[in-house]
């Protein structure tokens, strides 16, 4: 809502154009953006074009001890997805970079085999020949029959877009860690039960052997042992030893604390949301994987009958290794697959979508007071990956860091800077070089590519400093402050300089270097383990530090700092809030406050001066930041000035900007369209980045489309929307359920949420309405019937007419109050150039966000509601209030009521006790209704 | 065709722009009573309304928030009467009790602060139809087929002999330890005597001036009380010597009765003239008569203003608000707010035609004539102007309670209770709360 994803590229472009730069004119050949993979339908942002696969996918591979690296399965499990991409080859590549594969088995000086609870390792690597970039997550699973009891696996997220991998590293890492943890949990379970069986076998064998020896002893009275007897005794001894060994192993595996299971994020026993669909596909996956390995036997038989074990149970190579599913317990395996599907859905699509979504979600989270009004409740509840954003914020709060502040409107860059700051610090020399190197392309290339180039800097920096397991700090950037020590890692850089120097001018493409695999970075989680933990870490059996690490290692220290940041943030926000109050006081104690704006000039300036010293909080949506970047929030006067100028901008909707915007809209929409067309996936809407909610995304699109149609079709759209925004229940009356529901869907995007979890929208009602319904629902689709019951219903509508507006879908009329404001026309211009539903939806959301901020200002300005002094009369407060609404917020006529209603909702939400459900109030006005016809 | 005065959707004087619907009852809600200052509630000045219903449970709500405090179960039949019993200062206890009588021939006494049933009396021979608490004597009376006197501990102090099968329909406390009981057409005055050997209740006088059943009984001040009957008689009594001070028999359509008997029988059921409810302030008695509202001035001893058809059907409850406003609720499901205004004298015209013409074809003239006559007698003329209506219930509004500035609560046969509030005031209060909360939270708890 806050920033339309499909607008980003262009807004950046505008931003960049503003500062006049002395740069040489572009050479001829660069004046037109080069589309190296251009063809019919290609678009400049699509990096998919160069690769052999059509869309991102997840690959699970194993380093089999028998056949070497082999791909096991892909997600989505569709042969068309990898296409011509050589999975075998790529598996070989990704399996070859597991630096973590540590020795397991009999460590020197240890009597028994030890299980090593190996950390997962996370590597980013690129294969420019294949045009593939991958986040690779290595893990090891235990298998009693495997060499050293371990089987190395890896899960890789493979994308053609390098930036996506780099920028989403944290998120990917977190998600894959979860999936890996799930797998490993299942594996431990399976391993333990396997060990138990083995022990039973051994025990049985021992008994048998023992009996045999006894029998031999009895039969043998010669007083000396036969070779047979000696053999038996040896065998017995080895069995005994084996038992002890296995018991020890069992003890080790069992000692793994199952604390992880208590982690709220990790619910292996509860299917996660949207699982139905995932389940189906998982089952398919299972089915296919079973097909692939037909002779798989189900490992669990309820009552186990022990078998006799040959003394030499050698690990023979012709033996069938267990499948991944067998290794991990079917349940956990399916869980993992579900998670991986979820990951695939979350990260699919263009990285631009992902980033803007993350940013807007993070920003929305900030607006905790107002965001419930028009936002998806589901969107807010979700734990958005906002670490990156936090990082950015931390930077921007640093008062000295003006650069970041300036770049705030282009959050992407800021984010990159924020999260990779440390890498910049670590490799200063490299960086300079890089900047020099890549400066040229930036200058030379068409502006469209700037965005990518900006990112390229950063990537280049990273590439410069990364590589082996040592280069920990590169991606452990959350702790950027604490990781300045390991500069020796540079010494071990095995990177050939050629890829950077020779980097092609075109965005993300690189020349194919000799070694076609470049390890872009690794992030062994060891790097995040606090030092004292690390010290105790080598003791493999001791699970404690490991567990702690699991819980805290990845998140622990970052969280700490984040919390601190949070607190600071809150503190400063509170300050700001108080500042608002005091600012208000200053403004209002002066008699001039009640006077028109012009006389307030000096006063306002003072206020501003007092306020600007405080660094701004990105509380407002960025687009507002453009207009009132600093003072907007702190001083109502300047804020309103900003808003006013914004609103009065005649080009806002209909101007040339709008045209470009629309064309952009279409363009970017086609982008997603093309990529979806190109992908052979059966999903109808693969483009949405926030794919965790594909349904809602689709819903948005549909609602936006319907709303557009409604606006164009009905001249009385404005009063209808006004009714919704001012809290007057709108009844859509009609005979045809489909038409009514369509209208309701369309209009539902304008309905403010009353604070409950769902929007107060009822799509279809057939029974007569009561007052309670108006209290509960703000938009109702009502069936018109001809029966007596229908007459009854119409009677009820007439009776309650003061609470409702009635939109008759059949006769195309509206009965409702008059609307003469300026706000709704901006929201719903029937001559709008916007053509796409999703674009219109975003437009609505951004206008509504502005509206919310007005309502917020209005609600939280102390002196608009309470008297300044004891003796001030209620009337003067009321007049000040109206003054504020009209002059400062620039609201005309009925717009005032909209803001008042939203403010009322805000108040209710804010003062509501959490434990108390809260009775919804019905507020209404005694205003005449009019009948609108087409 | 509706002859009822209507008001458009624009109601400037109507302050009630916010409503809250309380659900919870499963049957007709018939009574609402005040319970002041429940010590349950943290804020001491909370006004608690008790909202009671036809059947066996009743609910206690806090007015401000609509929060349900208790759900009291105990009766097995519909509740017929309810009365709050506040603590007497002498005992030192500060408990508040509620008495409820039910058609299951029991009376239950409840503790308001805990919502618990304290005691249940079930020795009645008939349904108790009315309850009256005499705070002064710290006793309460129950009226059924006989009149019983009880103390706070639920000891039966004394009782009368069996009066009628129909039973006492209304009780009213009078000065000098007297009680007026409406029994059918008769009004019986009882006196309570507190002798050392025990309480006694004696019948003092029987008044049978009413032609039909007495429906309402209201005390105006220490000296006067008023009764209203089913056929539209209103009698003003002296509270000390129980003599008739004034009466208004069929005072609004006596003329009709006289010369249009058959017509009236056809068109008007007795209900249309019955005095459903009476209320009074110092100078006037307000009567809900049939579908209309009437204002009877005690000094002038005549009806000074009336609105024949204030509602579409019978008015069930009427109350005087400050600012000369009158509120009435009716079986038609609406609540209407009226304002008593002085009519500007327009000598040329017969004054009240405007209102009375709505009454019908033939009658209008007579009405007008009558009213005109009255106008001539007295210079000041009043009329009731509709200033607002509250529509929300889908069935008869049984009763409403005026909570002063807080608003109005209405209860209805549609099982709902609606709290009507002044939207402006509520909005302001919410702002105050909001800034208080903001100040409380102070620092880091709030996230913006």
From TrEMBL, chain A:
GO terms for molecular function: GTPase activator activity; guanyl-nucleotide exchange factor activity. Residues 48-907 form the UDENN FLCN/SMCR8-type domain. It is found in: Cytoplasm. Residues 487-501 have a biased composition (Polar residues). Residues 1-30, 487-509, 543-574 are annotated as: Disordered. Residues 11-21 have a biased composition (Basic and acidic residues). PROSITE patterns: DENN_FLCN_SMCR8. The keyword Cytoplasm applies. One of its GO terms (cellular component) is guanyl-nucleotide exchange factor complex. Pfam families: Folliculin (PF11704). One of its GO terms (biological process) is autophagy. The keyword Nucleus does not apply. InterPro entries: FLCN/SMCR8_DENN (IPR037521), Folliculin/SMCR8_longin (IPR037520). Keywords: Autophagy, Cytoplasm, Guanine-nucleotide releasing factor. Belongs to the SMCR8 family. This is SMCR8 protein. It comes from Crypturellus soui.
UniProtKB/TrEMBL annotation, chain B:
SMART domains: WD40 (SM00320). One of its GO terms (biological process) is autophagy. Its main location: cytoplasm. GO terms for cellular component: lysosomal membrane. It is found in: Cytoplasm. Keywords: Autophagy, Cytoplasm, Repeat, WD repeat. WD repeats lie at residues 93-120, 308-348. The keyword Transport does not apply. Pfam families: Beta-prop_WDR41. Component of the C9orf72-SMCR8 complex, at least composed of C9orf72, SMCR8 and WDR41. The complex is formed of two protomers, each individually consisting of one molecule each of C9orf72, SMCR8 and WDR41. The protomers homodimerize via an interaction between C9orf72 (via C-terminus) and SMCR8 (via N-terminus). Within each protomer SMCR8 (via DENN domain) acts as a bridging protein between WDR41 (via C-terminus and N-terminus) and C9orf72 (via C-terminus). The C9orf72-SMCR8 complex associates with the ULK1/ATG1 kinase complex. Non-catalytic component of the C9orf72-SMCR8 complex, a complex that has guanine nucleotide exchange factor (GEF) activity and regulates autophagy. The C9orf72-SMCR8 complex promotes the exchange of GDP to GTP, converting inactive GDP-bound RAB8A and RAB39B into their active GTP-bound form, thereby promoting autophagosome maturation. As part of the C9orf72-SMCR8 complex, stimulates RAB8A and RAB11A GTPase activity in vitro, however WDR42 is shown not be an essential complex component for this function. This is WD repeat-containing protein 41. The gene is Wdr41.
